[in-house]
Amino acid sequence: MILVTGGAGYIGSHTNKELNRAGYETVVLDNLIYGHEDFLKWGAFEKVDLRDLSGITDIFESYSIETVMHFAAFTNVEESVENPQEYYLNNLRNTLNLLQVMLEFKVKKLVFSSTCATYGNPIEIPLTENHPQNPINPYGRGKFMVEQVLKDYNSAYALRYVSLRYFNAAGADPEGEVGERHNPETHLIPQILDAAIGRREDIKIFGTDYDTPDGTCIRDYIHVTDLADAHLKALKYLEAGGKSQVFNLGNDNGFSVREVIETARKVTGKEIKVTETDRRQGDPPILVGSSQKAKELMGWKPKYDDLSQIIRTAWQWHKMDKKNNEMN
């Protein structure tokens, strides 16, 4: 049995689907603050908050947990700057609660949802796992701290883990069963699609004078189904006795904001109004990662590495997601 914390959220729900498709039994732990009840289509579900040690303990007593996949976290960078305490309590303290119960029940395998935000501003591109970690906001620092905790738990308690540092998750389940739904929406591709479908007036480009070919920021987008597949491969890696590791997950390729908008115009057939505005503080010009290590050690390879494919699946979901339509 695999415990999926945050399994009613964006990446957690896609991974839960892939786990069940691969024959694993799962139980989802989610407090449904940001998760969605209609994403709970596979496995068992327990509505529990990771603040609640007794609630976590009850799950481990009720189910024979062998491995934990830990997605549950707050993820809004700007919000983390405005309210760091909430982020450290939720993302760091609550992870310690989870680890405490794991140790009590001798569960020694964990796949952790980390982030490229642990690197901070890039010194060199593409970023590899050996790039210095110098996070520049509380969200990134909290994830970095968890990674340090996992190192110590590995040494002291033989807890083996895989930490997956994502770049920009994007797209939606090609079969349309789950997708991306945030309120408020902060990710570029769904914001662009909101403009295409008429939920917002325009899409803003923050800065057009960066040292890039078209002056706008370049980012590495990775399809959420490819992320889910990486979690499945990380699980199999640990089951085969693999030692604790960290892996970047990206496309090894970047696309500028203008390229993303233009591709969305082609996919949707919509004009999409653009407003150019000033740079945002802390936005590096280019953020692209190397996933070579994941490919070599886990045999992982993105299937949806074309930007048009990524946006097409997101657009299919965007048009049909009634609950998202109701929220806006």
Q: Structurally, how many domains make up the residues?
A: 2
CATH architecture tag of the largest domain: 3-Layer(aba) Sandwich
Q: Give Rg in angstroms.
A: 19 Å
Low-confidence stretches: none
Features of this protein?
three-stranded mixed β-sheet; 328 residues; seven-stranded parallel β-sheet; alpha/beta; Rossmann fold
Word description of this protein:
With 328 residues, this protein is an alpha/beta fold. It has two domains: 197 residues, Rossmann fold (3-Layer(aba) Sandwich), CATH 3.40.50; 108 residues, UDP-galactose 4-epimerase, domain 1 (Alpha-Beta Complex). It has eleven helices and 14 strands. The strands form four sheets. It has a seven-stranded parallel beta sheet with strand order 3-2-1-4-5-6-11, sandwiched between helices. Helix 5 links the parallel strand 5 and strand 6. Helix 2 runs parallel beside helix 4 and helix 6 crosses helix 10.
